[in-house]
Design goal:
homodimer; alpha/beta; 6-stranded parallel sheet; 5-stranded parallel sheet
Chain lengths: 333, 333
């Protein structure tokens, strides 16, 4: 568990996009970040108070979160200086970078010296169990997509926040690096050892109150030949009661696989339900979440209406229409 | 690649079953093991010449293979002494034990000193790629099972050996620890990082001659909630042209999951083909391999006949009937 509150490190981000992890934390956990730290040349601005490390410490910050993608896979010298100072000020560090904090001897040494922790959220920090498939109490929803990067994290985060706002018992369960940095914990599923994938998701979504919902971030797609095994482990380990189908309607082929067309929403639903009902015979598809960002207003409305009619399920775009209709559908599960 | 020839280390195996890895190597790679090394109290005997380390070295042995399961997850002091001596004699070590050779400082030190290698076949030794799903040349068969431990390794090994004997181009592709120790290389799939599972199988079964067959050892089952993701990665990464369905007919529930019944052969076929045809639309189920060990002669024959009629596919027990009919079916693919 990454300790809050955070200071968001934006480094020398060349633009807003480079700081999208920080932006995600600011958007989805308002209040958790007390400020931002921008170095010389930084062109991103989250609209949070700019703080020095000393100011952040005085304000009660516990963790400096690296909210910026670095260039070239190496943590720059200029960053290392700031990160060591943060450790010296008594803060932990958290990062989703490919190049790990723990692979930087200067950070390892400083963390040891100052008694602080380095959170590399790309790496599992837990010895996960083998999945048992035993039925757990509480309810679970899993986002499954026609492809990777089709809005699964966004949809489950939006649902969790809306449910929490209504006073429903709901927890977002992160399974990817950005989700983990937003939520403060989770399972970095793509880095888990094969035999423990489904078990890691059982561990992530344990027994709970009968009226509690886990909103499980999906990964990959059953129709994506690079990652489908990861998706299947999520379906079996999550033993969802409800699936929400996620789709990006303008994509012409699977992400990274130009020779593989996208599956239909129907095929995605049918294959996911076939697998899901092994672990939970009651599982149902309760709605569709469509990322219509690339469409104009009228096109988006037409797309949602067409999918809704065709699938016989509520179809929403979390950003345009909100997720209220998905939550209403959950209440029937 | 583990260098042959081998000396098989049986340690102080309390019975024949404890030495089943060594037995597998002796059965499936006759000639690769020049001898066996048995310590005080060993009750297993493979019928190979007993050799000292010096004798083995003089005979040309390159690797001491640990062919015995140890008790309690610790490599005993008495074993360590022999293993260090083997390194000093100029042999590499190979092991599929859960407790790793590389976690024993005395072995690491001795390997360094004598310039030898430690092969822990439970660990991937390669940085595998992400799967691309690109069609590869050559033919591939994958064993898929109704459950774990249903004869997949045995079936693909038997097919590979029979095809090699006939002069066909065929390679057994190991995906588990015992198979790797038998074959000398392979992918320890259950220990691969989630994102690289399918890619590791693409790597294992590369482009080949148009008339070459890879016989890919299967793992798990699409209906086993603990491991199905591993199975799916094999199906997508292997892009098989042919599936052989493996089944143990007396099992009442999934291995390790008493609350999960076995799927039918039909359900196994249909689900595996649905997934397989994503990566290879021409994939077909070509036969059934049934482990009838627990049945009497008449019962076994009746079981095979019933399955054959029901499935419309040749049904064999590799041990009782051989695999010729599966190979004949391959010739039509």
């Amino acid at each position: 568990m990454i300790e809050a509150p955070y200071l968001l490190f934006l480094g020398d981000a060349p633009d807003r996009l480079a700081a999208k992890v920080a932006q995600g934390i600011r958007d989805w956990r308002p209040g958790v970040a007390l400020g931002q730290l921008r170095m010389e040349g930084c062109r991103a601005d989250l609209g949070l108070p700019d703080m020095t490390l000393a100011e952040a410490r005085a304000a009660g910050v516990r963790t400096l979160v690296i909210g910026v993608a670095n260039r070239g896979g190496v943590i720059a010298e200029s960053w290392l200086k700031v990160l060591v100072e943060a450790l010296a000020e008594g803060m932990d560090l958290a990062s989703g970078l490919h190049n790990l904090l723990r692979d930087e001897p200067v950070l390892v040494e400083a963390a040891r010296r100052f008694g602080r922790r380095l959170h590399d959220v790309r790496l599992p920090g837990v010895k996960y169990p083998i999945a048992t498939g035993l039925k757990r109490r509480g309810k679970r929803l899993l986002a499954v997509g026609t492809d990777c990067s089709s809005g699964k994290m966004y949809t489950t985060l939006a649902m969790a926040r809306a449910m929490q706002t209504r006073g429903m018992k709901a927890t977002f369960r992160a399974t990817g690096q950005t989700g983990i940095l937003i939520e403060g914990d989770g399972v970095p599923l793509d880095a888990v050892i094969a035999d423990f994938m489904a078990g890691s998701i059982e561990w992530l979504t344990p027994d709970n109150d009968p009226d509690h919902w886990d909103l499980i971030e999906g990964q990959g797609s059953l129709h994506h030949v690079s990652y489908a095994g990861v998706t299947l482990a999520l379906i079996h380990g999550g033993q969802p009661d409800a699936l929400v189908l996620c789709h990006e309607p303008t994509r012409s082929h699977m992400r990274g696989l130009p020779h593989y067309p996208l599956p239909s929403l129907e095929a995605t639903r049918d294959l996911a339900l076939t697998h899901a009902r092994l672990a939970n015979p009651a599982c149902r598809a309760i709605g569709v979440s469509i990322n219509t960002q690339a469409l104009g207003e009228a096109e988006a409305a037409a797309c949602l209406a067409e999918v809704e009619t065709r699938m016989g399920l509520p179809a929403v775009d979390p950003l345009r229409t909100g997720v209220d209709r998905l939550i209403a559908a959950l209440e029937e599960v």
